[in-house]
Amino acid sequence: MIRAWVTPILLALAGALVAGSRLAGGSAVTGFALLALFLLLAALNSPLVFPRSTGAAEALRRNGADGRPVVYWRPGCTYCMRLRARLGGRARQAYWVNIWRDPEGAAAVRAVNDGDETVPTVLLAGRHHTNPDPAWLRARLDELS
């Protein structure tokens, strides 16, 4: 859990330092703008942006019951953030597995990506898709609805 918050905390601290130096230099507008930018990046990198993660075993069980996709992801991954952002509200239709919190999920990702923990990896209809186009996954979610 702590590992998931490292990037957002570092971004927030860096933003505070950069903004503080700008404020001390007399540039209040630039300082506050930079602080806002760093805080936005911290929020986007936080676990709060993603739907609640489930364990790999539970996600696979649910996937077998209703066919909804399983998305393996990790905090701080820009491709995962892009996928999540482009899916919008449809992201809640998938089962999200944080591979940093679930060793089974990490093992599943390594098994299909030649030993690499490449995310996002999506399991849909029995096939794994590594870093799929968000529009493609959005269309698959629309078909399932």
TrEMBL record:
Stretch forming the signal peptide: none
Residue ranges crossing the lipid bilayer per the database entry: 30-50
Coiled coil: none
Domain Glutaredoxin: 70-128
Keywords: Membrane, Transmembrane, Transmembrane helix
InterPro entries found in the cross-reference section: Glutaredoxin (IPR002109), Grx-like_ET (IPR051548), Thioredoxin-like_sf (IPR036249)
Stated name of the protein: Membrane protein
